[in-house]
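User: Could you go from structure to sequence for me? I need the amino acid at each position, not a summary. Structure tokens:
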């Protein structure tokens, strides 16, 4: 089940990364990087940590902020990130 969630997030972030070359998009496997996951306070998967000026500015935790479903659009994710 998690694999589907990660594929959804990967799809949208791949599109956004191509559209926003001024932004650095990075992906980690939280299960294989427990130190970094703990440092970023990642508990729920998937989680997007939105980092600005070397500090976590906001999080997208699961899909709750995006309507609670995995059928959100890339534009909805982009709008959420911009407003954060």
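Assistant: Here is the amino acid at each position, in order:
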């Amino acid at each position: 089940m998690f694999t589907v969630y990660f594929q959804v997030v990967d799809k949208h972030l791949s599109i956004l990364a191509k559209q926003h070359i001024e932004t650095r998009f990075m992906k980690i496997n939280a299960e294989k990087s427990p130190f970094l996951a703990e440092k970023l306070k990642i508990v729920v998967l998937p989680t997007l940590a939105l980092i600005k000026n070397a500090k976590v500015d906001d999080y997208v935790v699961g899909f709750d902020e995006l309507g609670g479903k995995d059928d959100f659009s890339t534009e909805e994710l982009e709008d959420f990130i911009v407003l954060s």
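One structural detail worth keeping in mind: The chain has a mean pLDDT of 91.
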